[in-house]
Amino acid sequence: MVKIKKHYTKVLIFVVCIILGFMISMQLKSTRRSQTVSVQRAEELSVRLQQVENDRDNLARELEEYRTGRVSSTLKQEMDNLNAYAGRTALQGKGIILTIDDSQQTIKAGENKNLYIIHDEDLLRVVNELRAAGAEAIAINDQRVTGTSEIRCVGPTVLVNEIRLAAPFVIKAIGNPQTLESSLKLRGGVLDNFKFWGIKAELAKSDTVKVPPAALRQSFEYAKIVPWDAKKETEGTTETAGKGGAAK
């Protein structure tokens, strides 16, 4: 009986040892797995941190270059393009040169003499036709025409960029010479109308049309720069229009 108890005790101790060994083994595996995951996570965070630091250093470098005037070639190209679009820089390229002058025809009795001289509306028609034909830059008597340029009659002269101009008017436009010329020579178009009233018009294509920069205002008095989300603004306008239609 004593021998049986001793044998049972030994078996029980053996089983307990196996269970403890298994539990210790599982715990060690879990600890190692946790340590491996922690190391991988730390490595990922380290890589991300390095990327953020690199981006920060690049931005700081670009900011310093901008402040000191030493901008990168890409940024400089973008700034040059923006200045060109705004009319702040002189441009040169293929295009046309149109010279127009008041009519020298004898005015018949009772006719309006204003029909035989060039007005602001005549210049506006030329500018609009050239823009529609893809002109990239336009000048009237070396006054660059931009989005803020005014063209209006003031007595016997025409005001462009607050500068008084008088005939003859030399209009320079940079773009496809053939397309620009065709836009003005349409049947019943601008040049046909000038010809009817005897207004002299000479048009020439050129490979080297030079357009000067505009003397633009350097700051805004009333307008302020704000962020613009085209999609959001369009949705807002559509929603407002829908409400207005429903109200009706």
What class would the helix/strand composition place it in? alpha+beta
Question: Which spans of ≥5 residues are poorly predicted at pLDDT below 50?
Answer: none
Order of secondary-structure elements: HHEHEEEEEEHHEH
Mean pLDDT: 81
Describe the structure concisely.
This protein has 248 residues and is an alpha+beta fold.
Labels describing this entry:
248 residues; alpha+beta; five-stranded antiparallel sheet; three-stranded antiparallel sheet; 6 helices
Task: Explain what this protein looks like in three dimensions.
By secondary structure, the protein is of the alpha+beta class. The chain is built from six helices and eight strands. The protein has helices at 2-68, 73-86, 120-132, 177-184, 190-196, 230-247; strands spanning 91-101, 137-140, 143-144, 151-154, 157-160, 163-165, 169-174, 200-211. Strands 3-2-7-1-8 form a five-stranded antiparallel beta sheet. Strand 5 and strand 6 (163-165) form a beta hairpin. The chain is rod-shaped and about 140 Å long. The relative contact order is 0.12.
Secondary-structure map:
Layout: H1 2-68, H2 73-86, E1 91-101, H3 120-132, E2 137-140, E3 143-144, E4 151-154, E5 157-160, E6 163-165, E7 169-174, H4 177-184, H5 190-196, E8 200-211, H6 230-247
Antiparallel strand pairs: 1-7, 1-8, 2-3, 2-7, 4-5, 5-6
